[in-house]
UniProtKB/TrEMBL annotation:
Protein name in the entry: Uncharacterized hydrolase YxeP
NCBIfam families xrefs: amidohydrolases (TIGR01891)
Pfam families tied to this protein: M20_dimer, Peptidase_M20
Domain of life: Bacteria
Length: 365
C-alpha cells in the first residue's frame, strides 16, 4: 500500500485541477475504484466521486477535497496543489485500500469532493446524497510546521469561519487639475481601510478583517478615478462573531458612502462556517493516535483561523458527529504558499491512522 499512496500522490500533484474543473482527477479516482470493484458514483453535472464499501444501515463517511488553487508559481499563473489536497486524496484512497477487504458491519462512504477552495463543493455533494444515513464524518488534512511537528497528529482541527465581500465604488472621474468636479474613489478606499481597523470585537474571540484587493484608475495619470472595485476578507473563530463583523462592515460602508457622496455596492460570497467538533469522532481519532504512536504524538486540538467547507456538512445535518484529523508533515513555508513542501513519508501514516480511526467508528458506539 505504501507504494500506491506515494504513486497516487505524485500523479495528482502533477495533474492539478482548479475548483469545478477536476475532470481528470475525478476520472482517475473512479478508475482506481473500478479496478478494485468498489461501488461508486460520478455525476454528469458536477465533478467528484462518492464511493462505498461495507454493509449495514448506518454510514460512517470520510471526505477528501480534490481541487487545486489557481496561483502564480515562478511568475506563471497555473493550477497548483499548494493546499495539500493531492495528499488528502491519496491518504483517503490509502485508507479505503486498507479497509476494502475487511468485514465491516457498517457502510463506509468516501466523498471525493470538488471545489473546497471556493467554499461550496460540500454543498454540491450534499445535494447528491452524500449525507444520507451518515452518523459520523471524518476528514484529514496536512498541517503547517508551526501547528504540528513531524510525528504529531491532531484529533481535531478547530477551523474558523470566513466570509468574503466584493465591493464597488461608483462615483465620477475628474481632471487632475479639478478634483472638486468628481469623487476620488481612492479617498473612499483609504477611508474603508482606516475604518476597518476601528472595528473591534472582544479580544478573547479570535478574528480579523482586512482589504485583500483594490482596482482603480487607468493609464491616464491626470484622471482622478471615480470608480473602484475592492474585496474584503473577514474571519472569526466562531460563527456568531463572524456575523457580527459582517453587520459592522455593512453599517460602515453605508456611512462611508454618505460621507464621500458616492454609491458603494457590495455582495457577500463564499461563507464558510466554523467547526462544530463531534465529541465521539474526535475521541476515536485520539484513541487511534495513542494506540499507533503513543502520548507524545497526540495533540487533542489545533485552533486555526483558516476555514474549510467541510463544516457545511455539520451545518446541513446538525446531529452529525464530525472531526478533521491533522497530520504533522514538516510542511513549509505554509499552506497556499506556491512553493509549499512537506515530508511525503507521512502519506502512508496518514492513511493507516485514518483506517484505524474508521475501524473504531465501525466497532464502537
Amino acid at each position: 500500500m505504501s507504494t500506491n499512496v506515494l504513486t497516487w500522490f505524485e500523479h495528482f500533484h502533477a495533474h492539478p485541477e482548479v475548483s469545478w474543473k477536476e475532470v481528470e482527477t475525478t476520472s482517475t479516482i473512479a478508475d482506481i475504484l473500478a479496478t478494485w470493484g468498489v461501488r461508486h458514483e460520478t455525476f454528469d453535472d458536477v465533478t467528484g466521486v462518492i464511493a462505498e464499501i461495507g454493509s449495514g444501515e448506518e454510514v460512517i463517511a470520510v471526505r477528501a477535497d480534490i481541487d487545486a488553487l489557481w496561483q502564480q508559481v515562478d511568475g506563471t499563473f497555473k493550477a497548483n496543489h499548494s493546499c495539500g489536497h493531492d495528499a488528502n486524496i491519496s491518504m483517503v484512497l490509502g485508507a479505503l485500500d486498507v479497509l476494502r477487504s475487511e468485514a465491516l458491519t457498517k457502510r463506509i462512504r468516501f466523498i471525493f469532493q470538488p471545489a473546497e477552495e471556493q467554499g461550496n463543493g460540500s454543498l454540491a455533494m450534499i445535494e447528491k446524497g452524500a449525507l444520507a444515513d451518515v452518523t459520523q464524518l471524518f476528514g484529514i488534512h496536512l498541517r503547517p510546521a508551526e501547528e504540528l511537528a513531524l510525528g504529531q497528529f491532531a484529533a481535531t482541527i478547530q477551523h474558523g469561519a470566513a466570509i468574503f465581500l466584493r465591493g464597488r465604488v461608483i462615483g465620477a472621474d475628474a481632471h487632475g487639475a479639478r478634483p472638486h468636479q468628481g469623487q476620488n474613489a481612492l479617498d473612499v478606499i483609504f477611508t474603508i481601510q482606516q475604518q476597518l481597523k476601528s472595528i473591534y470585537l472582544s479580544p478573547f474571540e479570535p478574528h480579523s478583517i482586512k482589504l485583500t484587493g483594490v482596482q482603480a484608475g487607468s493609464d491616464n495619470l491626470n484622471i482622478i478615478p471615480g470608480n473602484a472595485t475592492f474585496s474584503i476578507d473577514v474571519r472569526a473563530q466562531a460563527n456568531d462573531e463572524l456575523l457580527a463583523l459582517r453587520d459592522r462592515v455593512e453599517v460602515m460602508l453605508a456611512q462611508i458612502a454618505s460621507l464621500h457622496g458616492v454609491t458603494i455596492d457590495w455582495a457577500w460570497e463564499d461563507f464558510t462556517p466554523g467547526a462544530v467538533v463531534g465529541p465521539k469522532s474526535s475521541r476515536q481519532a485520539s484513541e487511534a493516535i495513542l494506540e499507533r504512536y503513543g502520548p507524545s504524538a497526540l495533540v487533542e486540538r489545533i485552533v486555526t483561523s483558516g476555514s474549510d467547507d467541510f463544516h457545511f456538512y455539520t451545518v446541513k445535518q446538525p446531529d452529525l458527529d464530525a472531526t478533521v484529523i491533522g497530520i504533522g508533515a514538516n510542511l513549509t513555508p505554509g499552506l497556499h504558499h506556491p512553493e509549499m513542501t512537506f515530508d511525503r513519508s507521512v502519506l502512508q501514516e496518514g492513511a493507516l491512522l485514518l483506517a484505524e480511526t474508521i475501524r473504531r467508528a465501525v466497532e464502537r458506539d
